Amino acid sequence: MTFNDEAERFQNLNLTNMMERFTPFQIDQILAKSEIQWQEFLGLLSPAATGLLENMAQAAHKLTIEHFGRTILLYTPLYLSNYCVNQCVYCGFNQANDIPRRKLTLHEVELEAQAISITGLQHLLILTGESRQHSPVSYIADCVSILRKYFSSISIEVYPLSTEEYADLISAGVDGLTIYQEVYDQQIYQRLHPAGPKRNYSYRLTSPERAGDAGIRTINIGALLGLNDWRYEVFFTGIHAAYLQNKFPDIEVGVSFPRMRPQFGDFEPEYRVSDSDLVQSIAALRLFLPRIGITISTRENAFLRDNLLKLGVTKMSAGSSTAIGGHTDAIDSIGQFEISDRRTVKEMRETISKAGYKPILKDWHDLNAGRIDETTSVT
Amino acid sequence: MEDKLKIGDKELDSRLFIGTGKFADYSLIPKVIESSKAQVVTVALRRVDFGTPEENMLTFLSQNIVLMPNTSGARNASEAIRIARIARAAGCGNWVKIEIINDQKYLLPNNFETIKAIEVLAKDGFIVLPYMSPDLTAAKMMAEAGAAAIMPLGAPIGTNRGLKTRELIQILISEINLPIIVDAGIGRPSEAAEAIEMGAAAVLVNTAIATADDPVLMAEAFGQAVDAGRKAYLAGPGATHQFAEASSPLTGFLRNE
Does A17 lie at the interface with B, CB-CB under 8 angstroms? Predict the structure, then answer.
């Protein structure tokens, strides 16, 4: 069984209808529970819960402090290549877009690594467009073998791979996978992905499971908010995360809440997701899955991020660029989407400290990089 | 009267161990150690940033602290063994708290993999303190494998729910000839006192101190609670009675025999 089967079960339910039937009294009852099931998670995402947002936020804050303490893990993305064979209508790297295409040489990867490493960050997320010609798995592996000299944790956000390919990247030094389904609604998915291998909804949906089978340590999933009704999408993200947590109990599962940002091209998101909707999403997910990681990226502005910090978030990006070579180039080239919070890593660290939290730069130790120390110490 | 806690090569005066994973500011840690008089501090190797002094938690700890690196993040025995060896090679000493978790939902430890890791690390010269789910058979096997103490959880980690596993811990205290250290779940000083009073050798506290409004004051309270609990244990509390002594006892007639 895969999440495909599980998703189908839920897609057959009239979730909108179910959500509309919740009353504020029921939401109050849900908030009093110490553990909640998917039906109650649906309730927390419902319109009835909107009036109890402050109570939800308080509960989410308390649970997060209990399980994660006052800490926020920082990471930054590193874009390796923007060649892409897909035509995701909302993406700046869409194959049909006439933008300069570029792929970092291994030397450039090293320069980017050095530039990021100076900021103190130890967690890196590497990204590529989907092009097996320009950015094959072997290229990603070569980049990782350079990057692991500089970072203690490397995650990938690349096109869906086979179990064997995930295993190859894990042995090259990758410990985390980020892959967004983009939109869980199948019809919308097909409409927004008109060409390229990404049209295969199921293969993308089951990627986290293949990475899990290959032995990855962390998995981060999400839906691009703005492509569909956020209540429906956040609900599916939540049950997907719960499914992964149950199937792979030793994997740290996380969820991101990426809201659509302006990008090169003329795509306008159809669905509005307000700040209040975002807060409701984060709080509901925290109450449903108390120990899950929650990420907010620099897609959101500084003011909002500073306020979201206490609502259940455990991980934030900092010093981000979505352009190829963006950490070393003097002039920004065209990125995948616009960054909203442009603060440097140093500024983010100071902001988080001021809010009474500890910015964490290292939360994993590359066990294989330590191999030499280990053999010398064995008597 | 001298009352030391002996673990491995160390004799300790304090029975409060401190965890460090949830502090908002590392500079609080030395203050917490000072106010609580704790001598043993556990640090996750995964968090130790050896390359950046201002981010390296170890630089906040004084030399006379017993450092107990933990294997947080290990999913099986072999990862725990590797983490322990990396920590020792990096100069973190030969104490290790084994923490093997492959349940990210409740963060409950895997006793089976923990036993395997103890066997290897104890032979390799480590002072091994395993974090475990309180189970008598597992604890006996851990003792046999060479553990220096046993650290059962009082409640799921981070929950501050107190001594939910009281009965099981009591059995470990009675049956296992090693220090029993209650790790995880203790949310209040009164619960720490209760654990020590019933015969636990020490308690390990992180969340309850780190997430208090005033961590330094809370640490002091925990230090005093643990002292009080220990004194009560040594003093031998009077037996408690479930019923008041009846003035007309049902067995009174036997006295006439």
Answer: no
pLDDT digits (tens, 9 = 90+) for A335-364: 777 788 888 999 999 999 999 999 999 999
Q: Is B47 on the interface with A (CB under 8 A)?
A: yes
Q: Which residues from chain A sit within 8 angstroms of residue B83, using beta carbons?
A: 365, 367
Report the SS3 class of residue B151: strand
pTM of the predicted protein model: 0.89
Those residues of chain A that have pLDDT short of 50 are: 370-379
- How far is B2 from chain A, CA to nearest CA, in Å? 37
Structure tokens at A338: 């616009």
Q: What is this model's ipTM?
A: 0.82
Q: Look at residues B182, B20, B44 and name the one whose alpha carbon lies nearest to residue B101.
A: B44
Give contacts of A 219-278 with B, CB under 8 A.
245-246, 249-253
Nearest by CB to residue A67, choosing from B82, B102, B158, is B158
Radius of gyration of chain A (CA): 20
Strand pairing category for B10-12 and B5-7: antiparallel
One-letter amino acid of A316: M
pLDDT tens string A227-242: 999 999 999 999 999 9
Nearest to B104 among A251, A358, A379 (CB): A251
Q: Tokens 């020792």 map to which residue?
A: B88
Which residue in the set A70, A251, A253 is minimally distant from B22, CB to CB? A70
Q: What amino acid is encoded at B57 in this protein?
A: M
Q: Which string of b and e fits B195-230 if b means at least 16 CB within 10 Å? A: bbbbebbbbbbbbbbbbeeebbebbbbbbbbbbbbb
- Note whether B49 and B256 are within 8 A (CB): no
* CA–CA gap between residue A206 and residue A317 (Å, rounded): 25
A9 touching B (Cβ < 8 Å): no
| Chain A residue closest in CA terms to B54 | A120
Annotation marks residue B231 as catalytic: no
**Beta-bridge mates of residue A88:** none
Helix (H) or strand (E) holding A306: helix A302-308
Three-state secondary-structure class, residue A282: helix
Residue in the structure block whose two tokens are 């993999």 = B113
Q: Distance (Å, rounded) from C-alpha A362 to C-alpha A364?
A: 6
User: Which helix (DSSP H) or strand (DSSP E) does residue A187 occupy?
Assistant: helix A186-192
- In chain B, the domains with their CATH numbers are 5-235 (3.20.20.70)
Closest CA to A87 of A47, A46, A131: A131
Q: Which residue of A has its CA nearest to B120?
A: A378
